[in-house]
Design a protein that fits this description.
Layout lengths: L1 H22 L29 H5 L14 H20 L3 H23 L4 H17 L5 H10 L1 H10 L6 H39 L12 H24 L3
Helix pairs in contact: 1-3, 1-4, 3-4, 4-5, 4-9, 5-8, 6-8, 7-8, 8-9
Length: 248
């Protein structure tokens, strides 16, 4: 039963993430303005805001103007709910669950915004940094020294790449890895960087081979870094133990 509660909680938060994904790039408030249809502007009633269920009942269309609602909305809700269950299966109801659930939700918002608009908003980074500074105080297995080193461990190499490539690496990517390092520590954030680069390289190469993009086309790196962070968050220690075990 508790897993069902975690899923519902994740779905509800996922609904709020949709608001963030849509409004933050447009510099609209995510707090005071009520939810409204992006096509006709009509306010959405509370019974049409039930995560996933309302989308199914409405047939994926606005109740007023009948314009199609993007599948992205229920998918984000479902994905966030599934991610919360995933994290709960690893950490139970612990400090790590709340911290990594928060981090994962931020990564979802960042990934969608970066993919659609090629930006990682500073407001989200600052919000993450506040919680990232608080997290080590409650997570005794991490500690502030590990968190501080983690802040610089992956962000400094990316900063060097950005300088040498004259803008080839976005500032948002650098800041993302810095604040994520506060949550993961230096070992896991370096692993996250490596994993993100591998995922980005594989997908980028596949898109080039499929002729979806050209070799010189720019693709947002944030979603790949977010993937690396998420993998390191859940499986990082096992991956490091496996790697070290190959040599010792």
């Amino acid at each position: 039963m508790f897993e069902i509660f975690i899923l519902i909680f994740g779905l509800v938060i996922g609904s709020f993430l949709n608001v963030c994904i849509y409004r933050i790039p447009l510099k609209q408030t995510i707090v005071t303005d009520p939810s409204h249809c992006v096509a006709c502007g009509k306010r959405i009633k509370w019974y049409d805001l039930i995560p996933v269920i309302s989308y199914i009942i409405l047939g994926g269309k606005c109740r007023v103007c009948k314009q199609k609602i993007s599948m992205k909305y229920p998918l984000v809700e479902l994905f966030n709910g599934a991610v919360y269950l995933w994290i709960y299966s690893f950490y139970g109801l612990s400090v790590q669950f709340y911290a990594f659930g928060f981090l994962a939700s931020c990564l979802i918002v960042i990934s969608f915004i970066d993919f659609e608009h090629q930006i990682i908003p500073n407001g989200i980074i600052i919000f993450m940094m506040i919680f990232g500074i608080i997290f080590p105080y409650f997570n005794k297995s991490l500690g502030y020294s590990d968190a501080v080193i983690g802040f610089f461990a992956a962000s400094i190499p990316l900063l060097i790449i950005a300088i040498l490539s004259r803008g080839g690496m976005g500032g948002g990517d650098i800041k993302l890895m810095a604040v994520a390092g506060l949550f993961l520590g230096w070992k896991l954030i370096l692993l996250a960087l490596i994993l993100g680069c591998i995922v980005g390289s594989v997908i980028g190469l596949a898109l080039i081979l499929l002729k979806k993009i050209q070799r010189r086309d720019k693709i947002p790196f944030g979603p790949f870094l977010a993937t690396g962070i998420f993998i390191a968050m859940l499986y990082g220690n096992q991956i490091l133990q496996w790697y070290i075990g190959m040599y010792f």
